[in-house]
Structure formats: structure tokens, C-alpha cells
Amino acid sequence: MLILAIDTSAVASAALVSSEAPGSVVASFSTEDTRSHAEVLAPGIEEMLAGAGVTGKDIDALVVGVGPGPFTGLRSGIATARTLAFVWGKPLHGLVSLDAMALEVAESAAAVPEFLVATDARRKEVYWARYSLADGRLPVLEDGPHVSFAADLPDLPAFGAGAGLYADALKAHPDFAQEQPDALYLGKFALARLEAGNGLLDSTPLYLRESDAQVPGPRKRAL
Amino acid sequence: MNRTQPLVLGIESSCDETGVGIVRGTTLLTNTVSSSMDEHVRFGGVIPEIASRAHLDAFVPTLEQALSDAGVVLDDVDAIAVTSGPGLAGALMVGVCAAKALAVATGKPLYAINHLVAHVGVGLLDGAGGGQHNGTAPQLPENLGALLVSGGHTEILRINSITDDVQLLGSTIDDAAGEAYDKVARILGLGYPGGPAIDMVARTGNPKSIRFPRGLSQPKYMGTAEEPGRHRYDWSFSGLKTAVARCVEQFEARGEEIPVADIAAAFQEAVVDIISSKAVLACREHGIKDVLLGGGVAANSRLRELTGQRCASAGIRLHVPPLDLCTDNGAMVAALGAQLVMAGVEPSGIRFAPDSSMPVTSVSLPA
Ligand SMILES: [Zn+2]
């Protein structure tokens, strides 16, 4: 099974993962930047596919990180994934973007049985979720995702750039203090679930916040 | 790429309409639009985040519908065109990302197109009003101007060449005319969108009962034809909106009933008077003999009437495309895209960034 994974919940990233490839990785790319998704994502995907000699026909499914993440960036990945899936006629699945980092934690030496993943939600808040981890299993999402002030999170080891940003309030793991969700781990997570016959989400974005729109109150006086 | 009668798919997402249009050369095959207007009603204006969320969900269904209405498949398409600006940044982003993905998935060339120029390009579609047929494909008249009036923009353009030489003669320096309509409709309790609501009520009012200010009409802004002032062809509507609010409050303070129809009519007259007089002035002073009207406010009966009269007395022909081609749509993007393809302009590639303030001098983005 060959999966194209895309995540733009923080940085822009994409990956090709396959059960037949060593370590499941065929190809991947990601950017450092969290604000230029519209420019870099499509060229990045195009070059990655060409480099791997893969076309839409070869892909069995797409998976996209549905956030949470800053809205405009998040939509870049979902709009891209939905359009590719439509044109190629392939199934599209969604995964919580924080799952990607949970898997990265699980595969690292820093793994612990219970932990938080946190990313920057701007406005002095973090997007976060709580995971549990048993040996040889995928991380399990126990609570979340939510958007909160760092000081209001459970007292557990915390992984990701959102934790690094608020290291004073959170038990931020230093090796993960700048880590962002990456499509590579998102793809590996999706591959493991699909091959085990488990379902995934659809591609509905997890905004967690309403639009800031306010119904206007009574007219202000101009005089 | 077929450059003589190219099949072009155009994508528009700069405001609250998700549009996909398909043209073959100058023939319109479909103009499919999904609007999030209803979701903005309770806010009394377009909320960018709500519009962006709606674009994301509307895009693929609108694309699918457009292909089916036009009876074409993506394989047949010669080029894709997308609005890359000006417009709401988050809204543009959705259409641009979708268009780039479409280009990646199909391998088709992509053109990043100026929304304002696309409003003019729509006039080149067969039967849309602006094109002149000389037995062959329609061509825009020489010395063409375009007056664009909508909730997002108010501009007068001169088009020397639709594919590479467009000049901004004047524009609003604050609110767009349509925005002023929305705000005044709210002050008068007439609902959203304000344009049709005010146009309707104004018919029963007396436009001369109150005299509202005409923004930027003072000599210091106007100057003379020889020595034009800084804002000779520019508009301003924020002072007008404040004047309406003040007028309403004065009636309230005196405990009198608010003459809604008279205020609506007088407001509309102020907007339409200054738009049409400055537009005609700009045309006369630039040798413009044909003017194309575009944007949603082109639906306004009084704007069409007064602009028509003033153009006629100045010897200028006014062209008004069908209304569904005046409001934001994907067909206009496809129409301009087809012009670029036929003119041999190279595509933009997939590395460009959307530009919320893209100038009209940039008809399409270079690769
Ligand atoms: Zn427009």
C-alpha cells in the first residue's frame, strides 16, 4: 500500500509511505517555515513524486493532517489533498496532526507511557492532546485535541514546539522543543492503522476555535 | 497547448463566491458558483474566516459540477487559471492551493490571474457585451475603460491591452461602494446585502430631500485636467456613511420618524452621482470611448441608469455584461486565462504566492 501524506498544521510537509519500503519511507519533504504553505507545498509534492518516480495512478490513498493548527495554513494542506484525491479518484483520510508527533515520540528513546503533545496555537495558547503508549502499539489519543493556555495543561511530560515555547509552564522535552507535526509520521501512522483494518477520520478540519466574527451590536453613535 | 481555441478552467475565491468557470476560446461553457453569502447575513458583511471555511468545503463540489455542466473532463483542459489577487488573503489561499494541486495532479499549465482585470476579460466572452465581432473572434474595443463597483472594490481602469497593459486611473481610498451600501443598510435596518435592499427602498424615496456629501469632489482633490489633483479620479465613501449615521441620529434626537426611503434614495444618489461623474471625467480625459461595467453593484438600477445617461451625453458607449458575469465568478478568470493563452503568454507555474493587493499592472504573474 502506497500512501501520500500531507500536513500543514504547522510547517508544510508531505511524504510517500509504503509497507514495502524500508522503514516505510519512500520519500518526504518538509519546510521550516510556518507561513508560506501556499507557495511551497505544491512544488514540494510535485518534486517528491517525480523524484520517487511515482504518479497519481500508483497511489492507493491520501491522508491529510486535519489539525488543529493555524487556520489558513491548515486549509492549504486540506485543499491540496482534497483536490489531488478528487482528480486521481483515490480515497482521502484524515488524522489529527498531533498524532504524527505522538508517533515520533513513541519511536524515540524519549518515549514514556503517558505524555502530552503541544503545538503553537498563537495568541499565547497551545493546541494539545494527551496520549498513552503501550509497548509495540500505536499511541492512543486519550484526551483532546484542545486549545488552552500552557499553564492549564495536565502535569505530564510534554513534546513539541508548543511545549518548547512555554518551557516555564510545561515539562518540555528538550529533544522535541522545536519539533512540529510532520507528514512522514502522519503517513506511517495512517499506514499502520489502515493495514490493521482500522478506520481514520475524514478530512474535516479541526479548527477548535470559532471564527472571530461577532454579530454586530446596536449601532454606535456617530455624534 | 492548444493556443487557438484553448479550453480553460478558471477558479475564483477572492471573496465570498467559490467559482469555477470553463471556456473554450471566447465561448462560455459553464459558470458554476457557490456562494457563502447567507452565512454572512447575520454579521452584516463578509467575514473573511467564514468565507475561507466555506471555500474549502465548496471547492471540489463546485469543480465537479462545473465539469459535468460543461460536459468536459480534466484531460481535455488546455490550461487552468486562478485568481491570485487582489482579494481576502485567506480566501485567495484556498483557491490558489486547490488550483496548484489541480495543476500537479493533471500536469496542466497554471496561470495566476488578476481578479480586477478578469472582471474586464469577461466582456470578451461571446454575447457578454464588450467584445466587437469582426467576423472572427471578438476583440475588445480600443480605448477601453472599465468601471468596477462591488462590495470589495471601486475602480476605474484603462485597458490598452487586456493581456499586458492595464492602468489604474482611480479607485476608492477607503470603503468600496458595496461596503458603504452594506453599512448604510445596517444603519437603516434594511438587512444584508445592502445594495439590493437600498436600491429597492430608494425607489419610493426622494433623492433630493437630503444632500449628502460627495467625497473627494473639492477642488483641492480634483485639480484641473492640466494639473490634476491627487484624487481627481478617486472616491471616498467613509465620510458619506458617517453623514448618513449623523442624519439618522438627528431625526432620532428630535423624536421624529426616520424617513428611511428618503435617506436611502439620497444616499444612493450621492454614491451613484460621484461614481458616474468621476468615471465619465476619467474617460473623457483619457480618450476612452467604450466603458465596461463590472462588479456586483452593476446590478444597481440607478447606477446603470445615471452612468448610462452620462456616458451617452459624453459620447461614450457603456457595456454591461449579464449580471451573473458581473459578480465574482470563475468564468471571468477562465475568460482572461484564455486570452493569455491565445496571446502566447507563458504560464505562471506553481511557485507563486497569492497577493491580496495585486496591482492591475500585473495581469498575470510571471513564472
Ligand atoms: Zn470582484
TrEMBL record, chain A:
<dbReference type="InterPro" id="IPR043129">
    <property type="entry name" value="ATPase_NBD"/>
</dbReference>
<dbReference type="InterPro" id="IPR000905">
    <property type="entry name" value="Gcp-like_dom"/>
</dbReference>
<feature type="domain" description="Gcp-like">
    <location>
        <begin position="34"/>
        <end position="138"/>
    </location>
</feature>
<dbReference type="Pfam" id="PF00814">
    <property type="entry name" value="TsaD"/>
</dbReference>
<protein>
    <submittedName>
        <fullName>tRNA (Adenosine(37)-N6)-threonylcarbamoyltransferase complex dimerization subunit type 1 TsaB</fullName>
    </submittedName>
</protein>
<dbReference type="InterPro" id="IPR022496">
    <property type="entry name" value="T6A_TsaB"/>
</dbReference>
From TrEMBL, chain B:
<keyword id="KW-0408">Iron</keyword>
<feature type="binding site">
    <location>
        <position position="119"/>
    </location>
    <ligand>
        <name>Fe cation</name>
    </ligand>
</feature>
<feature type="binding site">
    <location>
        <position position="115"/>
    </location>
    <ligand>
        <name>Fe cation</name>
    </ligand>
</feature>
<protein>
    <recommendedName>
        <fullName>tRNA N6-adenosine threonylcarbamoyltransferase</fullName>
        <ecNumber>2.3.1.234</ecNumber>
    </recommendedName>
</protein>
<comment type="similarity">
    <text>Belongs to the KAE1 / TsaD family.</text>
</comment>
<feature type="binding site">
    <location>
        <position position="199"/>
    </location>
    <ligand>
        <name>substrate</name>
    </ligand>
</feature>
<keyword id="KW-0963">Cytoplasm</keyword>
<feature type="binding site">
    <location>
        <position position="300"/>
    </location>
    <ligand>
        <name>substrate</name>
    </ligand>
</feature>
<dbReference type="Pfam" id="PF00814">
    <property type="entry name" value="TsaD"/>
</dbReference>
<keyword id="KW-0819">tRNA processing</keyword>
<dbReference type="InterPro" id="IPR017861">
    <property type="entry name" value="KAE1/TsaD"/>
</dbReference>
<keyword id="KW-0479">Metal-binding</keyword>
<dbReference type="InterPro" id="IPR000905">
    <property type="entry name" value="Gcp-like_dom"/>
</dbReference>
<feature type="binding site">
    <location>
        <position position="195"/>
    </location>
    <ligand>
        <name>substrate</name>
    </ligand>
</feature>
<feature type="binding site">
    <location>
        <position position="182"/>
    </location>
    <ligand>
        <name>substrate</name>
    </ligand>
</feature>
<feature type="binding site">
    <location>
        <position position="328"/>
    </location>
    <ligand>
        <name>Fe cation</name>
    </ligand>
</feature>
<feature type="domain" description="Gcp-like">
    <location>
        <begin position="28"/>
        <end position="334"/>
    </location>
</feature>
<dbReference type="InterPro" id="IPR022450">
    <property type="entry name" value="TsaD"/>
</dbReference>
<dbReference type="InterPro" id="IPR043129">
    <property type="entry name" value="ATPase_NBD"/>
</dbReference>
<comment type="function">
    <text>Required for the formation of a threonylcarbamoyl group on adenosine at position 37 (t(6)A37) in tRNAs that read codons beginning with adenine. Is involved in the transfer of the threonylcarbamoyl moiety of threonylcarbamoyl-AMP (TC-AMP) to the N6 group of A37, together with TsaE and TsaB. TsaD likely plays a direct catalytic role in this reaction.</text>
</comment>
<keyword id="KW-0808">Transferase</keyword>
<keyword id="KW-0012">Acyltransferase</keyword>
